[in-house]
Write a sequence for this structure.
């Protein structure tokens, strides 16, 4: 006959399995050493022969880099070209990681690089589109991100690509929905005024 055992399991605490998309309230530091160490590991584990440990190092890299200020992130990108031996994968890793860092600093850096037509980083059209689309899905943009969105909206006049209006305005909508009231937010008011002026000018 089969023997059955009853096991009483008591759940004392539950933890959400959802990824936390909240922005870091403030950049913690400019110390790039931890991010750099993880980036070195990514270089050794990445292309051309990607190792199974690579995803784990990638997550650790994101976690460390999310704590960097804009200045720290710029330093990391500037030094990344010499991290991977005999190739530019270090810089490539940093640039491709920017949408997943999801900090105000990473959004600011993407915005700057998107608007810099003379950028030394040779950012492809495909990467730019990936960056813009990643912004569309930001669940909790903060006021610093909204300032970056305003810059991108203004950049539309030079770029003439609808995504520079459609995606940033969607981010602004998400921001206002989260905070509950944008009637007294001067950046949002300036965005609305700017868009109204564009509409009137094109009538």
């Amino acid at each position: 006959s089969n023997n059955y055992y009853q096991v009483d399991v008591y759940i004392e605490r539950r933890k959400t399995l959802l990824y936390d998309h909240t922005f870091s309230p403030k950049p913690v530091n400019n110390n790039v050493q931890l991010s750099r160490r993880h980036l070195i590991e990514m270089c050794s584990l990445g292309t051309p022969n990607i190792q199974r440990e690579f995803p784990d190092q990638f997550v650790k890299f994101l976690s460390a880099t999310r704590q960097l200020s804009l200045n720290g992130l710029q330093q990391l990108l500037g030094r990344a070209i010499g991290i991977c031996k005999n190739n530019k994968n270090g810089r490539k890793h940093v640039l491709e990681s920017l949408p997943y860092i999801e900090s105000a600093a990473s959004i600011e850096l993407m915005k700057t690089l998107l608007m810099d037509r003379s950028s030394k980083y040779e950012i492809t059209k495909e990467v730019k589109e990936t960056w813009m689309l990643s912004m569309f899905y930001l669940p909790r943009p903060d006021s610093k991100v909204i300032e970056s969105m305003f810059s991108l909206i203004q950049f539309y006049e030079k770029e003439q690509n609808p995504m520079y209006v459609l995606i940033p305005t969607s981010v602004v909508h998400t921001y206002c929905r989260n905070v509950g009231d944008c009637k007294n937010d001067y950046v949002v008011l300036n965005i609305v005024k700017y868009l109204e002026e564009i509409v009137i000018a094109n009538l």
